[in-house]
Automatic annotation (TrEMBL), chain A:
Domain of life the protein comes from: Bacteria
Protein's recorded name: Monosaccharide ABC transporter membrane protein, CUT2 family
Major subcellular site: membrane
Record membrane topology: Multi-pass membrane protein
Species assigned in the record: Bosea lathyri
Segments of this protein annotated with the region Disordered: 1-23
Transmembrane segments: 31-51, 63-83, 90-109, 115-136, 148-167, 187-211, 242-260, 319-338
UniProtKB/TrEMBL annotation, chain B:
Swiss-Prot/TrEMBL keywords: ATP-binding, Cell membrane, Membrane, Nucleotide-binding, Repeat, Sugar transport, Translocase, Transport
Gene Ontology molecular function terms on file: ATP binding; ATP hydrolysis activity
Cell compartment(s), UniProt: Cell membrane
Membrane topology: Peripheral membrane protein
Protein name: Monosaccharide ABC transporter ATP-binding protein, CUT2 family
Protein family membership: Belongs to the ABC transporter superfamily.
PANTHER family documented for this protein: CARBOHYDRATE TRANSPORT ATP-BINDING PROTEIN MG119-RELATED (PTHR43790), GALACTOFURANOSE TRANSPORTER ATP-BINDING PROTEIN YTFR (PTHR43790:SF9)
Pfam families (alphabetical): ABC_tran
Natural source organism: Bosea lathyri
């Protein structure tokens, strides 16, 4: 018998196995964190080569300003996805909040006699409404034990339908003088950087701090990684879930209060497909769809990467601009597929 | 003994240097032994000895990392359990592999459906199922959905399924864990009959009396290695146990210390009922005392404590440190100084994708958040725990999943003790842990008790309870039927209470 031979051959064949696996996971880990940055750099180079206007300061601040809405929502979405949840309603929620804020400001300005106070309260209302909607999501998901997918699919329909109802199928528009008063929140800038970009930066920093430096952030990761283990470790799972969805709601509120002065109106197409873009940003940024891991920095890069793609599509004519959501759809599916391979 | 080989002869198996690794952890280190056809083999070894992994390799569920399996002298490589089935090798799992919503006949022919043209031939399958069921002595309608069967019947369906696939080698992993004595007796008759027909049977069990009763030969594994074999009539139960553990049983455990009887109980539970699982359970545990809970699978031990800890609806009174408390969740329990180590380490005990530090501090994280988490304090806590609990890890920044079972368990223990509880409930604290680590965990539990912690140990390993506990409460069908101590702490007495074959006024 050739027993010793098979033994040695067997050992020889399998010995490098674990080692190769380790380098493999090391490589994919690195790819996971640097991949998006690398992609962004490549896209920027490609953009510059394709169109001279791409690398101008104006274009880049424009890209970043437009990224701000989605980016701010994506920061909140990052928490929800790390928690192991999902929120499909953010686009509709933004639209409904925008509509409510516009109605409120239009009503409050004459009622209170102070346009400025009306705008300030309206901006505050956006955040409060976002928190309230998030709270409802959280309670239904945590206490009602309904799948987050179903809850937010339901509210996706509900929020947009109510906006359409309030707008009577058309658009809700801010009064002209009020729109002028509110405009600097979107169009203004400090130190040459537009206000929305500053706020995006601030939200991302605070988000990163909460995720990495607080017990709450650790609990969010623990629940997403394995909810049963977290529950058995005496973590107040329900409370953390509710707070996480509220956090996303607040992010949507902030994004909306920046968005309202941009057009000064809300219509049934406001915030359409924002959920796709926000979720795609988080996933491109390296978060695991199954929950447990993800990073705010990655999410920010992911959001910028997606708007750079759409910007390049705008500036060039390689692919029709109408196909932009398709590109995002392809990206999200491809990245999710690559994630599967990594496990 | 009858080694007669007839037409439907059993399978001869030879393992040759089988090595199995899961990631960086090697669980089988070159196992070699052979089995003759038509005999019943008892495969012995403690939890974590590698028995189940080896059997999964034989049945095609896992591929060996190195080494080879020979069937009837030919080297084989099974790509799936179907390949193994084609050679007549069938593994009956500890957890059954039945599709609950399909009928008995549907399960028996699952993956091997009989067809007539494009359609299923239900009539032929019904008839085939009846024949197979008759062979195992189960008299049920084959169109019954499996979910309506009781556990013992499901087991017989599994065996009928194996028979209908013309099994020539049957592997049974702890088949009697969920059976009553009379159901088990029926199973033994069936095994004897199969042996007579020439089928090879590999029987894995912790119950040495059963092994003594029905096997021809015992094979012992320890820590992923083959350590010895002997014809069953020539070896005593004590010798089997010693071979499994690798040292005299007495050396495996620390010397028991007396409990300070003057101190009031750290926890007292009275009239605890968990609907469907436990009725009217009362017990108390003092500081420094180790109270064991014994019982068969399904006796309601884990469920009783889940009820106490607020994980299931329950009624009854709980006192901690002499104060009546209401526990609505594990969080409440932890606040009152009671923590729980789940029997399901990977599912409920540890975040295997997390590093060691976050696992350790999770239950007491508030202590490290002021309000920002303090990584250096967490690091110090980890260093201390690694030292105190003897956790061996290549580096302290690795994920918990890369630790061996024993070290994961030590980390899980350190985690539930991190909030500094007064009472700790340890559910199967040495499950899936090698013998060396077991001993370390026993000494650890002993030291904790010595420091004044009240410890409750739920365990299915009677030897463990005998070696460790001051008193053992035995549960049967949801009730505490006896609380044993001193000379009453023997395997025989505990099994008698657990199975109800002894009637003592409780």
């Amino acid at each position: 018998m050739s027993q010793p031979d098979t033994n040695i051959a067997g050992n020889g064949a399998t010995e490098p196995g674990p080692r190769r696996q380790q380098t493999g996971s090391w490589l994919s880990d690195r790819l996971g964190s640097f991949g998006p940055v690398l992609g962004l750099v490549v896209l920027c180079i490609a953009g510059t080569l394709l169109n001279g206007d791409f690398a101008t300061f104006d274009n880049l601040t424009n890209v970043l300003t437009r990224t701000a809405f989605i980016g701010i929502i994506a920061v909140g979405m990052c928490f929800v996805i790390i928690l192991g949840g999902i929120d499909l309603s953010v686009g509709s929620m933004a639209a409904l909040i925008a509509g409510c804020v516009i109605m409120f400001i239009n009503w409050a300005s004459p009622a209170l006699g102070s346009p400025l106070l009306a705008v300030l309260l309206g901006a505050g209302l956006a955040v409060v409404l976002g928190a309230a909607f998030g709270f409802i999501h959280g309670v239904l998901i945590a206490k009602g034990r309904i799948e987050p997918f179903i809850v937010t699919l339901g509210t996706l329909g509900i929020f947009r339908a109510y906006l359409t109802y309030f707008a009577d199928g058309g658009a809700l528009t801010l009064g002209n003088d009020l729109a002028d008063l509110y405009a600097p929140v979107y169009y203004g800038s400090a130190l040459g950087i537009p206000v929305p970009v500053w706020i995006f930066l601030l939200v991302a920093l605070v988000g990163g701090l909460i995720l990495n430096k607080t017990a709450f952030g650790r609990y969010v990761q623990a629940i997403g990684s394995n909810e049963a283990v977290a529950r058995y470790a005496a973590v107040d799972v329900d409370r953390i879930k509710i707070l996480t969805y509220m956090l996303l709601g607040i992010c949507v509120g902030i994004a909306t209060l920046l968005y309202v002065p941009r057009l000064g109106s809300a219509s049934p197409t406001t915030g359409l497909l924002w959920e796709l873009e926000a979720i795609a940003s988080v996933i491109v940024g390296g978060a695991a769809l199954k929950g447990g891991q993800g990073s705010i920095a990655g999410t920010v890069v992911g959001a910028i990467l997606l708007s750079v793609i759409s910007n390049i599509l705008n500036l060039t004519s390689i692919i029709s601009v109408y196909l932009n959501p398709a590109v995002q759809g392809f990206v999200i599916i491809i990245v999710a597929f690559l994630q599967k391979g990594r496990r | 003994m009858s080694g007669t080989v007839d037409d439907r002869s059993g399978v001869a198996v030879a393992f040759d240097g089988i090595v199995k690794r899961f990631g960086a952890v090697e669980v089988l280190h070159g196992v070699s032994f052979s089995l003759e056809p038509g005999r019943v083999y008892g495969l012995l070894g403690e939890n974590g000895a590698g028995k189940s992994t080896l059997m999964k390799i034989l049945a095609g569920y896992e591929a060996p990392s190195a080494g080879s399996v020979h069937i009837d002298g030919e080297p084989v490589i099974f790509k799936s359990s179907r390949d193994a089935e084609a050679h007549g090798i069938v593994l009956i799992h500890q957890e059954f592999n039945l599709a609950e919503d399909l009928s008995v006949a549907g399960n028996i022919f699952l993956g091997h459906e009989k067809t007539k043209g494009w359609f299923l031939d239900e009539r032929a399958m019904q008839a085939g199922a009846v024949t197979a069921l008759r062979q195992v002595g189960l008299d049920i309608d084959p169109s019954t959905p499996v979910r309506r069967l009781i556990v013992a019947e499901k087991q017989l369906v599994e065996i009928a399924k194996a028979i209908s696939r013309r099994a020539r080698l049957l592997i049974m992993d702890e088949p009697t864990a969920t059976l009553t004595p009379s159901e088990a007796a029926r199973l033994f008759t069936l095994i004897a009959r199969m042996r007579e027909e020439g089928v090879t049977v590999i029987y894995i069990s912790h119950k040495l009396d059963e092994v003594e009763r029905i096997t021809d030969e015992v094979i012992v594994m320890r820590d992923g290695r083959f350590v010895g074999r002997a014809p069953t009539p020539t070896i005593t139960r004590h010798a089997m146990a010693t071979m499994m553990v690798g040292r005299e049983i007495a050396d495996q455990f620390p010397t028991r210390l007396a409990v300070d009887e003057s101190r009031g109980p750290a926890m007292r539970v009275s009239g605890m009922s968990v609907p469907g699982w436990a009725q009217d359970a009362s017990f108390a545990v003092r500081p420094g005392e180790i109270l064991g809970f014994a019982g068969l699978v399904g006796a309601g031990r884990t469920e009783l404590f889940e009820g106490i800890l607020g994980l299931r609806p329950a009624s009854g009174a709980i006192e901690l440190q002499g104060r009546a408390v209401k526990l609505g969740s594990l969080r409440d329990a932890a606040k009152h100084g009671l923590t729980y180590l789940s029997e399901d380490r990977k599912g409920k005990g540890l975040h295997v994708d997390f590093a060691l530090g976050p696992n350790l501090t999770l239950m007491a994280l508030e202590r490290y958040a002021k309000p920002w988490l303090d990584p250096s304090a967490e690091k110090q806590a980890l260093d201390r725990a690694v030292h105190e609990f003897g956790i061996r890890a290549g580096s302290l920044s690795v994920k918990a999943s890369s630790l061996s079972g024993g070290n994961q368990q030590k980390l899980a223990l350190a985690k539930v003790l991190h909030p500094e509880p007064k009472v700790v409930v340890l559910d199967e604290p040495t499950r899936g842990v090698d013998v060396g680590a077991k001993r370390e965990i026993y000494f650890l539990i002993h030291r904790l008790a010595q420091q004044g912690l009240a410890v409750i140990v739920i365990s299915s390993e009677l030897i463990e309870l005998i070696g460790l506990a001051h008193r053992v409460a035995v549960m049967r069908a949801g009730r505490i039927v006896a609380t044993l101590s001193g000379d009453e702490l023997t395997e025989e007495i505990m099994i008698a209470h657990a199975t109800g074959t002894r009637h003592v006024a409780a």
